[in-house]
Amino acid sequence: MEHIFGLVVVLIMEIIYEASKSPKVPKPLRYILIGLTILFFAAFFVCIFIAGIWTLKKTVPGGIVIIAFGLLMLILSIRKFRKTYLNR
User: Fold this and answer.
1) Radius of gyration over alpha carbons of the chain, in Å?
2) Is the CB of residue 84 less than 8 Å from the CB of residue 77?
3) CA 58 to CA 68: how far, in whole Å?
4) Which residue has the higher pLDDT, 22 or 45?
5) pLDDT band at residue 88, thresholds of 50, 70 and 90?
6) DSSP letter at 26?
7) Global confidence as pTM
8) Does residue 52 contact residue 70 with C-beta atoms inside 8 Å?
């Protein structure tokens, strides 16, 4: 069941991502889709940082690794966003 849920979420996010880049979609709708994408990734990174802080309380090296991994993913996501949407 969780695999189906994961597949549906990935499919929806891929559709939103592709539609937000398409010039055939009206600009206001594209901006809404970009906002939804940003909200989704922001929630994802908040969850990673919360998990890192909780793990930091139990084991310091593990928490640092999770937080560092979250920061790396955040930096790479910002670079991808800038490349995709801002450098046109």
Assistant:
1) 16
2) no
3) 16
4) 45
5) low
6) -
7) 0.76
8) yes
Task: Determine the length of the chain.
Answer: 88
Q: For tokens 């901006």, name the residue.
A: 31
Structure tokens at 53: 């802080």
Q: Is 88 helix (H, G, I), strand (E, B) or coil?
A: coil
- Give one DSSP letter per residue of 30-73, joined into a string: HHHHHHHHHHHHHHHHHHHHHHHHHHHHH-HHHHHHHHHHHHHH
Write out the two tokens for 54. Answer: 């909780």
Q: Are 14 and 36 in contact (CB under 8 A)?
A: no
Instruction: Write out pLDDT tens, residues 31-85.
Output: 998 898 889 889 999 999 999 999 999 999 999 999 999 999 999 999 988 888 8
Instruction: Quote the pLDDT of residue 63.
Output: 92
Residue 17 CA, distance from chain mean position: 11
